[in-house]
Please model this.
Amino acid sequence: MTVSTIILAAGKGTRMKSPSPKILHKIAGKHLIAFGVDLAKAIKSKELIVVVGVEHEQVTKKALSDNEIKFCLQKNRLGTGDAVKVALEKFKIKSKHTLVLYGDTPFVTKGTIKRMVAKAEKGFQLVFLGFQSQTKNSYGKFKLGPKNTLVDIIEKNEPGYSSAKGLSNSGILLAQSNIVTDLIQKIKNDNSKKEYYLTDLVKMATEYGYSSTFVECKEDECMGVNSQLELSVAERKFQDEFRKKLLAYGVSIPSPETCFFSYDTIIKSGCVIEPNVFFGKGVKIQSSTIIRSYSYIEGTHIGRNCQIGPFARLRPGTNLSDQVKVGNFVEVKNASLATETKANHLSYIGDAKIGTSTNIGAGTIFCNYDGKNKNRTVVGDNVFVGSNTSLIAPLKISDGSIVAAGSAINKDVPLESLAIARAVQENKIGLGKKIMAEIRKVAGKIKK
Model:
C-alpha cells in the first residue's frame, strides 16, 4: 500500500509561553516535529507534507532542511479540517492512502500505523486512532456502530459529549486519498468555535456510504505536547524508556533516573554509566567503557575500555580510541586521542591530534585560538607533556619527546627531544623574610 503523509504543525503553541515554535521544542535533543517526520519515513511515505503557520514558516523550514519535505502554509488557523484541506489543494496526493499526523505528538509508533494500514487494506475508507483515557480530557469521543464501525466523533461542548464513554480521539487519521480529498471540501464550521473539524469526516463518510473504523493504542502513545509541563512529562517518558532499553542491552546504570540521554545515543554492552551523567547528541561508546559521575558528553565517539571522568566534558568532534583515560575537570573539543593516551587532570585539549601512549600532564592547556583563527596541535606517540604546560598552536610535538613542566611551547619539538620553555629560577636569599615582615606591617595598620 502506498501512503502519503501530512503533518499538521501550524498551531501557535501559546501555552508553551515561549518565543520558539512549539514544534521546535526538543525531547532528548530532537525537535518535536522531527518525530513525526521520522515516523513518516519509517513507513516509507511516498511524499511528506508539513503544514506550518505563517509566523514560523521560515524557522521550521530551516530546522527541517530535508529536500524531500514539502511545506504548505496555513494562513488562517481555521481548524484541523482546514489544515488538511489546504495541503490537499496545494499538492495532488499521489498515493492511494493519506496519513494525517500531528507535529506535537511524538510517541506514535510504526507498529500502530501498520495496524491502521491493515484495517484500510480490509476495505475501510477511513481509519482513526483512539485510546482509552484514564482521566477527563477535552479530546473528542468515538461513537461506535456495529462490527467496530465508527459512526461519529463527538467534540467537547457538542451535544452528547458529557455522556460519551467511548475511546478518545487522537486526531490521527488514515484515509483513502480520493475520498478524503472529496469529503474535505464539504466540511462546514457549524460549531461553537467556527472551525472546520477533521473529525466531521466520520459522520459525512457514513452519509455518503463510506465505512469508517478505528485502531486503539495506549494513552501515552498519543500524548500531545502543548505546554512546558507536558514537554517535561514527555521528556521523562522518553528517558525512562531509553534507560530500560540500555539496561536490557547490558549497560550498567546504577542510578538510571539521574542520567539523561539523547535520542541518538549509542552505548554498547559492558559499559558502566555512573550517576549524574548527561549525553548530548552524537555520542557513541564502545563496550566496557566507564563513564564516571558528573560528566557531560556530546558529539563524541569513545572506544573500548576507556575511563572518562568524573567531571569530564567531551565536546563535539572528540574521538577517543581504546583504553584512553580522560579524567576529572578535563575538557576535550575537536580532538582525537589514540590508544592508551591519558589526560587525567585539569586540562583543556582543543583542535588537536594526539598519538598513542602519550601523557598529558595536569594543568596542560592547548592554546588553539589566537583571537581570530582556530589552530591545530599535533602530538606524536609516546610523548610526555609535563604539568602546567601551554602548547601554543599551530604546533607539532614529535614522537618520543618530553615537554618540561611549566613550559610555554610555541615552536615545533623534534623527534625524541626535551623541550624547556620557562624563565630561569632565581633565589634571592633573605628577601622572602623582608617581604613577609612588610606584609604583616601593612596588615596590622589595616586592622587598626
Q: What stands out?
A: The CA atoms of residues 221 and 397 lie 55 Å apart. The chain has a mean pLDDT of 93. The radius of gyration is 31 Å.
